[in-house]
Amino acid sequence: MFSLPPTPEDPVFALNRLFNADPSPTKISCGIGAYRDNSGNPTVLSCVKKAKDLIGSSTQNEYLPISGDAEFLSLSRELCFGSDPSSNVSSIQSLSGTGGLYLSLKLLSQIGCKKVYASNPTWGNHKSLSLNAGLEYSTYTYLDLTNLSSPSIDITNFLSDLSSMPINSAVILQACGHNPTGVDPTSEQWDMIVEKCRERKLYVIMDNAYQGFASGSPESDSLSIRKFLSSGLDFLVCCSYAKNFGLYGQRVGAVHVVSADSKNVVDAMKQIARATYSNPPKHGSDIVKTVLGSEELKKDWVREVGEMSERIREMRSKIREKLEETTGGSWKHVTDQIGMFSYTGLSKEQVMKCREESVYMLESGRVSVAGVNEGNLERICDVIGRAVGE
Ligand code: LMR
Questions:
Q1: Whose alpha carbon is nearest atom 9 of ligand 1?
Q2: Domains in the chain: ranges and CATH
Q3: What local confidence, expressed as pLDDT, does residue 85 receive?
Q4: Exposure winner among 51, 140, 249, 368, fewest CB in 10 A?
């Protein structure tokens, strides 16, 4: 008979459940990282709508190969690296970014990697995925946590932590739009990070979940990936098309393996995929392939992801303005940060006070700015103002 202790819920989805169960007509979700438009509604991009109309129905329910759709993968490489660098890059379609991380971490554990490091703080699922893949998990210094009001990367300790990782450890780096802090390394800092990873012979996994959301330009947001590519190091990139295409529930993603041995690495990942879920879903990758494969639809997409990113930037300015007015303190960090999230610096106690007033954010004080709009901004800031003022 089963006899199990209770399993703790995932914090992001638990918060979403609490939000959905809250009967308050004025409740606001700034928890899960899912884009909402200025009226608070989920967005279906117009390029996605057009692509759906173009996708034929006769083959839509067929199996994809275990490695996924080759054309989708080639277009994904092009987006990630600037062009399709076919020679020493091989790819496998994945169940969005999470599925790509799973394939990568499981593969690393199979080839003798023992330990994986992610930033402190990081997206909570990095730890769960690493442990689930059978790896030891630890963190490296990332943000200077002593000065959250003027956020910056603690590069000295970051590099020194990289230096002391055992050779053959794995390191998860977020390519852009760092979750949860909204703070990315500068171009010079990335150069130093790449160099350290080379020195320590680390297995690098780039988690590329927000391409387009950080700067508004998918090309600029791939700077870190392109630096790793030109360094000649072996590395893995896990791409998600959940946020930047608004295809959250479709689970569209890809892992690109950069290595002279990339084909064998992907073949080993195909074994893992076959023994886990067999092959990837098709509809989402059909959509992304149709958009990225059409000059016109790709232009629409670049514009639309730029607009989403711009709306978030506008909300950051307004939040800062309003909070500085109501609290009298500095909220400069809200506009210094980029991407979907703001690491507000609110304590757990202050977050709980906000929840009592039906404004939901993660316990860490992470606010999904994608959930803020002209209609709810005042209330969010009033509630935060009261929580920090008490
Ligand atoms: C988030 O961090 O809110 C998103 O990436 C959703 C998730 O899967 O956790």
A1: 12
A2: 11-44+308-389 (3.90.1150.10), 59-297 (3.40.640.10)
A3: 79
A4: 249
In sequence order, which residues have a C-beta less than 8 Å from that of residue 85 and are 6 or more positions away? 77, 229, 258
Locate the ligand 1 atom nearest the alpha carbon of residue 180 and give its number.
2
Q: Is the CB of 210 under 6 A from ligand 1?
A: no
What phi-psi label fits residue 166: left (phi over 0), alpha (psi between -120 and 50 degrees) or beta? beta
Q: What is the pLDDT of residue 136?
A: 98
3-state secondary structure of 122: coil
pLDDT score recorded for residue 305: 97
| Dihedral angle computed from the Cα positions of residues 14, 148, 308 and 238, in that order, rounded to the nearest 10 degrees | -70
**pLDDT, averaged in runs of 10, over the chain (390 residues):** 94 95 96 95 96 84 96 97 86 98 98 97 97 98 86 95 95 98 97 97 97 96 96 96 97 98 98 98 96 98 97 97 93 95 94 97 96 96 92
* Positions marked active-site: 123, 207, 243
Q: Look at ligand 1, atom 1, and give the residue with the nearest C-alpha.
A: 33
User: Which residue's CA is the nearest one to ligand 1's atom 5?
Assistant: 33
- From 237, 193, 260, select the one nearest 78 (Cα to Cα): 237
Give ∠ CA 150-153-155 in degrees, rounded to 5. Answer: 135
- C-alpha span between 12 and 54 (Å, rounded): 34
pLDDT at 390: 66
Reduced to 3 states, what is the DSSP secondary structure of residue 95? Answer: coil
